[in-house]
C-alpha cells in the first residue's frame, strides 16, 4: 500500500489558490460594503423618516444576528429567492457563482457596519467647517467633495480598516457552504494528508501575513488622510 507524504505535492499551491479566493471575496465584499455603507450613512443622516427607519432596521438586524446565520440564510435563501422571482417573471433559473454569492453575502453584512462607521465619521466633522462651506455658497456636491469626504476620512479609516481585517477572516465562514477558500482548502489538505497541525499552522501563517501586509498599507493610507493634521504627540 502506498503511503501519502505528509506534504503531498501540490498542496502548497492549493493553499495559495484558496488564499487568492479569500482575498477576492474580501476585496469585493469590502467595496460593496463601502458603497452600501456610504449610501446608508447619508440616508440615515439626511434621508426622510421612512428611509431612516428602514436603514435602522437593516443595521440593527445585521449587527444582532450572528454572521454565520446570515451567511447561511442569504447564501441559500437569497439565491433561491432570486431564482423564484426569475421563474415567476418567465425567465429560466440561473446558476449563481459561489464567488458572486460570497461577495454579496459578506458585502451585505459589511454594509451595515460601514454605515455606522461612516455615519459616526461624518458626525465627527467640526460643524464650523460645514457652516463655512454653506456660507461660501458651496453646492451640496462640491461641499461633499471638498469638505465632507476629506474631513471624515481620518475618523473613518480606522473603523473601515478594522472591517477589512474582519472581512478577510469572515471569508473562512464561507467554508460551511462549500465555497473553496483558504479554510476549506486547508481542511481538504489536512484531511487527505492527515497532517492537521502542519496545514492549519500554514493557514494561520497565511492569514497573519495578509493581516501584517494590510496593516502596512492601512498605516500609509491613514498617514495620507491625516496629512496636515497634528500628530498625537504634537497635540499633547
TrEMBL record:
<keyword id="KW-0812">Transmembrane</keyword>
<keyword id="KW-0997">Cell inner membrane</keyword>
<dbReference type="InterPro" id="IPR010065">
    <property type="entry name" value="AA_ABC_transptr_permease_3TM"/>
</dbReference>
<dbReference type="InterPro" id="IPR051613">
    <property type="entry name" value="ABC_transp_permease_HisMQ"/>
</dbReference>
<feature type="transmembrane region" description="Helical">
    <location>
        <begin position="96"/>
        <end position="113"/>
    </location>
</feature>
<keyword id="KW-0813">Transport</keyword>
<feature type="domain" description="ABC transmembrane type-1">
    <location>
        <begin position="19"/>
        <end position="218"/>
    </location>
</feature>
<comment type="similarity">
    <text>Belongs to the binding-protein-dependent transport system permease family. HisMQ subfamily.</text>
</comment>
<keyword id="KW-1003">Cell membrane</keyword>
<dbReference type="GO" id="GO:0022857">
    <property type="term" value="F:transmembrane transporter activity"/>
</dbReference>
<dbReference type="InterPro" id="IPR000515">
    <property type="entry name" value="MetI-like"/>
</dbReference>
<dbReference type="GO" id="GO:0043190">
    <property type="term" value="C:ATP-binding cassette (ABC) transporter complex"/>
</dbReference>
<feature type="transmembrane region" description="Helical">
    <location>
        <begin position="54"/>
        <end position="76"/>
    </location>
</feature>
<dbReference type="InterPro" id="IPR035906">
    <property type="entry name" value="MetI-like_sf"/>
</dbReference>
<dbReference type="Pfam" id="PF00528">
    <property type="entry name" value="BPD_transp_1"/>
</dbReference>
<protein>
    <submittedName>
        <fullName>Histidine/lysine/arginine/ornithine transporter subunit membrane component of ABC superfamily</fullName>
    </submittedName>
</protein>
<feature type="transmembrane region" description="Helical">
    <location>
        <begin position="20"/>
        <end position="42"/>
    </location>
</feature>
<keyword id="KW-0472">Membrane</keyword>
<feature type="transmembrane region" description="Helical">
    <location>
        <begin position="197"/>
        <end position="218"/>
    </location>
</feature>
<feature type="transmembrane region" description="Helical">
    <location>
        <begin position="147"/>
        <end position="166"/>
    </location>
</feature>
<keyword id="KW-1133">Transmembrane helix</keyword>
Amino acid at each position: 500500500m502506498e503511503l501519502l507524504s505528509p506534504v503531498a505535492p501540490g498542496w502548497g499551491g492549493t493553499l495559495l489558490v484558496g488564499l487568492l479566493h479569500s482575498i477576492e471575496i474580501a476585496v469585493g465584499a469590502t467595496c460593496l460594503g463601502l458603497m452600501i455603507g456610504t449610501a446608508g450613512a447619508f440616508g440615515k443622516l439626511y434621508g426622510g423618516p421612512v428611509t431612516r427607519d428602514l436603514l435602522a432596521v437593516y443595521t440593527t438586524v445585521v449587527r444582532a444576528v450572528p454572521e454565520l446565520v446570515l451567511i447561511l440564510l442569504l447564501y441559500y435563501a437569497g439565491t433561491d429567492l432570486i431564482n423564484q422571482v426569475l421563474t415567476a417573471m418567465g425567465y429560466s433559473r440561473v446558476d449563481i457563482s459561489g464567488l458572486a454569492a460570497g461577495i454579496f453575502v459578506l458585502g451585505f453584512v459589511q454594509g451595515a457596519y460601514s454605515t455606522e462607521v461612516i455615519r459616526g465619521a461624518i458626525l465627527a466633522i467640526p460643524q464650523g467647517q460645514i457652516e463655512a462651506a454653506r456660507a461660501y455658497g458651496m453646492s451640496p456636491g462640491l461641499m461633499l467633495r471638498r469638505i465632507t469626504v476629506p474631513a471624515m476620512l481620518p475618523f473613518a479609516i480606522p473603523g473601515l480598516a478594522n472591517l477589512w481585517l474582519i472581512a478577510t477572516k469572515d471569508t473562512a465562514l464561507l467554508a460551511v457552504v462549500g465555497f473553496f477558500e483558504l479554510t476549506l482548502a486547508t481542511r481538504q489538505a489536512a484531511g487527505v494528508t492527515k497532517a492537521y497541525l502542519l496545514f492549519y499552522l500554514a493557514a494561520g501563517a497565511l492569514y497573519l501575513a495578509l493581516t501584517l501586509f494590510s496593516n502596512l498599507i492601512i498605516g500609509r493610507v491613514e498617514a495620507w488622510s491625516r496629512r496636515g493634521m497634528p500628530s498625537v504627540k504634537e497635540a499633547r
